[in-house]
Amino acid sequence: MTRFIANARMYAVAPEAEAAWQALIAHVAAEAGVELDYEPYPAPQPLEHLWRRPDLGLVQMCGYPIALRIADVVPIAAPIPSPDWAQGRAAYRSDLIVRADSSFRRLEDTFGHRVGWTVAHSHSGFNALRHHLLPHWQVKVGPLYAESLGDLVTARAVLDAVLAGRIDVGPLDAYWHALIAHYRPELTASIRVLDSTALAPMPAFVAAPGLPAAAVARLRQGFAQAATRPWFAEHAEALLIAGFAPVDQADFATTLAWDHAAVQAGYPLPV
């Protein structure tokens, strides 16, 4: 019998967060009657390799690669972050961060300096940043930055690069930012948010097509009802979430629209 795995690597910002995700997944899966093996997949292992595995049962995946179809997956449900900026929706944004002691006061002040980004299939670390910079690039009709440092891969690498002064500004998934500030406040004490992008669809839990449709339906229902369960409050507090929203492929179309706008304008990279 095929065994299916669960994983919360995208938002396992600290061991405490990963433990909370593992426990929450176990509750949802148990109520859905779906057997899953939680399998850690720590950085820097490539997420795209994980997403292409045929044994995915419940694994977090960014909405932009879902929309790009870089892996054949079935979206199930997405978390609703509890911070006010999420507006009670399964949505998130990117915080454009700088060192707290920098002289930058507006995003425009960073132009001519160094920007960083994660990978080209990331929404929060690439697509959202590029979309946010596009109007400025269209006015200038040329590079905004003296240097664009890409392939930093993870949000943590962006944070570290800003703190180390290797880049002057970079995008940080705002939900990831909230979690790391919750669990490791010393890492965020020396940065500040200069600007934030528009909201976009939140990364979701997905499964491989091999997970039976009935199991997918039960998991989707389990996530939708999670906030009503007595076990939810403890995990909601630990993970800064208010609940979950069922999702499908069409829910991530916004990310493709942002991509098409930038590419058609001749702005393929955030530079």
UniProtKB/TrEMBL annotation:
<dbReference type="Pfam" id="PF12974">
    <property type="entry name" value="Phosphonate-bd"/>
</dbReference>
<protein>
    <submittedName>
        <fullName>PhnD/SsuA/transferrin family substrate-binding protein</fullName>
    </submittedName>
</protein>
